[in-house]
Amino acid sequence: MKNDSDGGILGSILRGIGEMVDLVQKLDSEGNTEINRMGTFGNLTDRKRLGGCYGFTLKTGLPGKKPPVACDTMPSGAQQDIIFKNSDPVIDVFDEGHFVRVVVEIPTVSYEDIVLHIKENILYLTVWAKDEPFNKSITLPHRVKPGTMRRSIRNGILEVLLDVQD
Question: Would you give the distance in Å from CA 11 to the centre of its chain?
Answer without folding.
Answer: 27
